[in-house]
Amino acid sequence: MNFYTKDTKTALESKDLAQWIAFGPVVFQVAKVLRDTGILTAVEESGLKGLTQDEIVEATTLPRYGVRVLLESGLGIGLVILNDLRYTLTKTGHFILHDPLTKVNMDFVQDVCYKGLYDLEASIRNGKPEGLKVFGNWPTIYEGLSQLPAPVQKSWFAFDHFFSDTAFPAVLKTVYKNGIRNILDIGGNTGKWAIASTRHAPDVHVTIMDLPGQLNVAKNRIAELGLQDRVSFHPANLLDETQPFPTGFDAIWMSQFLDCFSEDEIVSILKRCHQALDDNGYVLILEAFWDLQRFETAAFCLQQTSIYFTALANGNSQMYHSKVFTDCVRAAGFEITQQTDHIGLSHTLLSCKKKI
Fold it and tell me: Mind telling me which residue stretches traverse the membrane in this protein (predicted)?
């Protein structure tokens, strides 16, 4: 990956980008309001003919002043263009309206991150998610996830599931090709991996290990699908090092989970995985590493997602560089026997066994 080895911008381009950064929060909010109020939709539906400002006011029933300032800002952002006093949509405006990745990222930043990011510097200095107080007084967002306001939960889960939904179908055959039938799913969240696994193979049994609040969400979903005989539950606080992991499994699965922890915590969790498995057991880790992306935009999205962990989630984790992460794997007594990159949108699958 050579995205970040050279400064390729001219001085003028660099100064332009600096202004985009300075007005970044304004740009974000204008784009979201243009999307949510229907202004971009109205302009898009007019096609190449476009709409005048007055026609947009009529179509959206918004005040003329508000429409004017939003459209003029939208010109600078690049969401619309203006010819003969008629506005038409740009390609960027189209993506704001219709691109699923853009939508899930924008909703996540607005609903989950935006207010809490004000306390980013305090989070950096204190090593705690100081921005989380906008939602509640929990040590991490995970204890409070089931208590977040419904719109915030919706955006959080949509963001989380968007990436796993593209990766799970691609790895199911790989995970279960070597006869794994009894698997421990640590950090199973809403049970999506357990459900995908039971649908993939009729003789697979999954035990989900997670915080009690999260398990309640998964239990309800599992019960709705009639999978109670195929899925078990093990409540636990993974940060409590005195709690041993259950044993008797062919493999331990962790997807988009270990990025929720600091390096020391990752090593601690993996050491307890080491103790729970026999010498033939596997640890299978599905993660997105910013340095292993095919496209710079993907790396950018992951790097910025790290700031959510800093300010709101827990104050000490991130979307990791692969070397930092694999050093933790080896420090816990495992060797990586297989690494498969470019799964789904952004993921890597690490297959790990105990060092001999």
Answer: none
Per residue in 312-353, pLDDT (tens digit) is 999 999 999 999 999 999 999 999 999 999 998 899 999 999
Domains and CATH numbers, the chain: 11-98 (1.10.10.10), 163-354 (3.40.50.150)
CB neighbours of residue 236 within 10 Å: 16
pLDDT in tens, 64-75: 999 999 999 999
Q: Which residues pair with 356 in a beta bridge?
A: none
Q: CA triplet 213, 255, 203: central angle to 5 degrees?
A: 90
Q: Determine contact, residues 154/178, Cβ cutoff 8 Å.
A: no
On the CB side of 85, CA atoms within 13 Å amount to 4
- Non-local (6+) Cβ contacts of 313 within 8 A are 129, 132, 140, 141, 142, 260
**CA angle (56 as vertex; 36, 107 as ends), nearest 5:** 10
Distance CA 8, CA 319 (A): 25
CB 35 within 8 A of CB 98: no
| Cα-based distances in Å from 328 to 84, 115, 210, 259, 268 | 60, 32, 21, 12, 9
Measured CA to CA in angstroms, residue 155 lies from 14, 51, 56, 170, 355 at distances of: 33, 32, 29, 24, 40
Q: What pTM, to 2 d.p., does this model score?
A: 0.92
**302 φ, ψ to 5°?**
-70, -40
| Sequence-ordered list of residues with C-beta below 8 angstroms from that of 54, at least 6 positions apart, any chain | 64
In 277-355, alpha helices (H): 296-308, 322-331
Q: Can you tell me the distance from the alpha carbon of 156 to that of 348, in angstroms, rounded to the nearest whole number?
A: 22
Taking a C-beta distance cutoff of 8 angstroms, is the pair 308, 259 a contact?
A: no
Rounded CA-CA distance 302/152 in Å is 20
Strand arrangement, sheet containing 282-288: 231-235, 205-210, 182-186, 251-255, 282-288, 347-354, 334-343
Asked if 253 and 184 count as a contact pair (C-beta separation under 8 A), the reply is: yes
